[in-house]
C-alpha cells in the first residue's frame, strides 16, 4: 500500500513538473517602434526543414489571440496561410518573416510567433508601437517658392531698366540741348 501511494505521488510530481516545464515558455519580449505607413517585419529562425516546422503569427488582443498567418511545412515543402489582409510571409531554409504592410496605429500591440512543431511550443514576442510621423516643419524664410523669386527678380530688373532709361534719356536730352 505504501509503495502504491509513493508511486502515485511520484507520478503526480512528475506530471506537475512536466506541466510547470511546459508553462515555462521562452517569453522574452522585444520592443520595437515603427512609423505609421511603413512596412514592419517580424523574423524568427526556422528549425531544420526536415523536421516539418510550423510557425504561427498572432496579435494578442486583450485575452485572446488573433491569428495573422501561419507557415506549415511538410516533406520539405512550405505553404503560407493568411487569416488577415495586409500581411505577407517570406521564408527560406533558415528564417520566416512576417511583413505587416503599411502599418497603422491600430496595429500597435503584442505580436507572438509560436513554433508549433516543437514538443514544447516556444513563443517569441514583439511589443510593437506604431507612432505618427512628426509634422513637416514650416518652410524657412530663406527658402521661398520659385514664382516669388522670379517675380522679385523681374521687378528689380524692370526698376533698374527704368532708372537706366531715365538717366540715359536725361543725358541724351542734356547733350541735345547743349548742341
Automatic annotation (TrEMBL):
Residues passing through the membrane, by range: 148-169
Signal peptide residue numbers: 1-22
Protein's UniProt name: Uncharacterized protein
Presence of keyword Transmembrane helix: yes
Keywords: Membrane, Signal, Transmembrane, Transmembrane helix
Lineage: Eukaryota, Metazoa, Chordata, Craniata, Vertebrata
Keyword Signal: yes
InterPro entries the record matches: Ig-like_fold
Xref: Gene3D superfamilies: Immunoglobulins (2.60.40.10)
